[in-house]
Amino acid sequence: MTGTAKLIRLILRRDRIVLPLWILLFGLLGVGTYASFEGLFPTDAERIQFASVSTDNAGLVALYGLLQGDSLAVLTSWRVGFVPMVIGLAALLTVIRHTRADEEAGRTELLGATVVGRHAQLAAALIVTATASVLIGLLTFVSMAGKTGNTGGSLAFGAELTVSGLMFAAVAAITAQLTSSARSARSIAVVVLGVAYALRVGGDISAIGDGGLTWLSWVSPLGWVTHIFPYGPVNWWPVVMSVLAAAIATNVAVELRKVRDLGDGLVASRLGPANAPAGLGHPLGLAWRLHRGLLLGWTAGFALLGLIFGGVGGSVLDIAESNQGLTDIFDRLAGGNGAGQLLDSYFAGIAGTVGLIAACYGVQATLRLRDEETAGHAEAVLTTSVSRFAWAASHLLFALLGPALALFAEGLVSGLVATDGNFGRILGGTMLQLPAVWVLAGLTVLLFGLLPRLSLVAWAAPVICVLVLLVGQTLQASQWLLDISPFTHVPHLTGGTVSATPVITLLVVAAALAAAGLFGLRRRNLPD
Amino acid sequence: MTEAIDAEGLIKRFGQVAALDGLDLKVRTGEVHGFLGPNGAGKTTTIRILLGLMRHDGGRASLLGGDPWAQATELHKRLAYVPGDVTLWPSLTGGEVIDLLGRLRGGLDPARKKELLDRFELDPRKKGRTYSKGNRQKVALVAALASDVELLILDEPTSGLDPLMEEVFREVILQEKRRGDRTVLLSSHILAEVEALCDRLTIIREGRTVETGSLADLRHLTRTSIQAELSGPPDGLATMPGIHDFRTDNGKVRFDVDTDALEPALQTLVKVGVRSLVSQPPSLEELFLRQYQRSDEK
């Protein structure tokens, strides 16, 4: 354990921006949600109506967990029920970043040769992550206790978030010992998280139905934390179980660390083929190998989104009939032309949201080009008979068609699941987001081609679009501000009138941006 | 076509810094050409210009008779390149990378691939992320050597290999050399390797060519060191032109002598009477050190 304090300082230095950011964000999410619910439900009747409809809604239960009560505080903690999973994700990524990722990169070896104990690295990563989780809980406790006056409930609420971080930090500590690659360690931990989520969804949905599979929630760590029910029938047992589980998992990780050598994993890396398959002989074959995981993951994720959004859609009418505030929100999400067609407005709003998420995929896939450049892989390919254009095009094919496939999956599933919606219009409205997605991908190509060192600035584009959407929702923002986002210009198939002009304009803009980027790529140094 | 690479007065600027400042490089077809220089001298930049990855700001460059920038993709079918820092795709196996790069170049000889894998003792079934630096380099070397190309551009190809594998590398390159139709540009820091493999070499420093020629030409520029036991006093030897660092101790003398002054110096020694003589041939090492160190003195 010698040197742990020094390593903690190193982690704090490396994460000095991200760490405070996620502590603040997750720590204040509860009180922020509370405040927005206060505005959303001005009367008790509206709130109680919303609660009673939500209690039995499968889509909402899948997303947030079971709802036990109808007070403002109960609704708040229920609505934050998705956050334990996000905190778990942040915790596991942090732990692996400071353990296995460092070890794989050889940085651990550098540190291990100095006066640093064998367990110091794992200890430092866990201490930092655990402290961050405790701070999130503490912030939640203080802010919510101040707002609601309910000390016991707020303590349980804070504990719910803290133990989520603790458990998945410990899970990551174990997976970091298993394989020699950080990527596999991360994937295994994320799969554990995904399975925990799926089990909770299964158990909770069973609980609002026949109740036969309720036990599923109790084999999932995420099920435990969402069954604490702060402000409702508080149950402290899950807190105790979670802390015990985290402690046991941490001990397992320490024991595993003892029996393996530096750099090795407990599971040996599998050997692969000695020869390339026939398809791996041209740029497109290589791009498929590099993009297929991303494509599969995003498409599956989007199908899941479709399931949830489509499932929730059915009860939107019930919820909103009694609540003008909610109707207004969907109206504004849909761009203000919902004209009271509530379900249409809902699906138009969902299409816009899904489009923004797809844009993130588009940006990420386009930035693979830059990753390939900085990693030195581009040099290897471009000194063969592959031209720069062919190389870029092979990646862009996935950056452009990948989001198309993902959007199609979401629209298809959502359209099939939504009982009251119009299938064709839901799917069509979702696909109409594609030109706006391509504008952001085109912008990324432009940066990559002309200002390669600023490629990562491309991530600002989806962030700005989200801000525009949020601002447009809450304020009466001026039109020019809204117009910045290409998503503002997407026509709404569900509930709106469709015109081809904006679609064509967006396509032309996307093509022009990408063409300018490719022109720049042909002329610049590579690597730059 | 007698010159595979012909660059004259190459200039490349990165912002304010001139990475290349009038560099000349001529590599004759069929020869193994050593390309030497201290770190940061501009070796990799030169290679990247020749490969059409970067554009030069001044001077002239021709590769296999073509323009390395404008005709990059056609020229690349006729060459193979091993970068100094080989990185592999983490999820592809070594064998897959070798096949991929070979196919992208326009084909590779499976029998030759197998032979090279055996000689370099490389397991092609491992994933890219699990290879050590030396093994990553072997992957790139096998991919390059198994391709049927006219020109090999190797940027410090043995920097991660163990001495045994260095020897294998030398054998393979000598084999290529005997074939006579392949040109090799070999950037290296290992002098023994350059001495064993190269017909001619070019030394660069701070973006400029400082020496170029055959090993014999360059040896000419170096000094031989002499230790002798004499039967009489070494009169006048110390002040002869071309004699450096002259020391005498109990009838023994030690000095360094320029190649041009070797003969008169030996005649003087013989006149005095020689009981024993040790002469050390000029080493490349010394030459490089002298060339490299000049940049520090400035």
TrEMBL record, chain A:
Keywords: Membrane, Transmembrane, Transmembrane helix. It comes from the Bacteria. The keyword Iron does not apply. The keyword Membrane applies. The chain crosses the membrane at residues 17-37, 80-99, 120-142, 154-176, 188-216, 236-254, 294-317, 346-363, 396-418, 430-451, 458-482, 502-521. This is Exporter of polyketide antibiotics. The lineage of its organism: Bacteria, Bacillati, Actinomycetota, Actinomycetes, Micromonosporales.
From TrEMBL, chain B:
This is Tetronasin ABC transporter ATP-binding protein. SUPFAM superfamilies: P-loop containing nucleoside triphosphate hydrolases. One of its GO terms (cellular component) is plasma membrane. Keywords: Antibiotic resistance, ATP-binding, Nucleotide-binding, Transport. One of its GO terms (biological process) is response to antibiotic. It comes from Paractinoplanes tereljensis. It is a peripheral membrane protein. Transmembrane segments: none annotated. It is found in: Cell membrane. Residues 5-231 form the ABC transporter domain. It comes from the Bacteria. PANTHER family: ABC TRANSPORTER ATP-BINDING PROTEIN, ABC TRANSPORTER ATP-BINDING PROTEIN NATA. InterPro entries: AAA+_ATPase (IPR003593), ABC_transporter-like_ATP-bd (IPR003439), ABC_transporter-like_CS (IPR017871), ABC_transporter_ATP-binding (IPR050763), DrrA1/2-like_C (IPR025302), P-loop_NTPase (IPR027417). Its main location: membrane. Belongs to the ABC transporter superfamily. One of its GO terms (molecular function) is ATP hydrolysis activity.
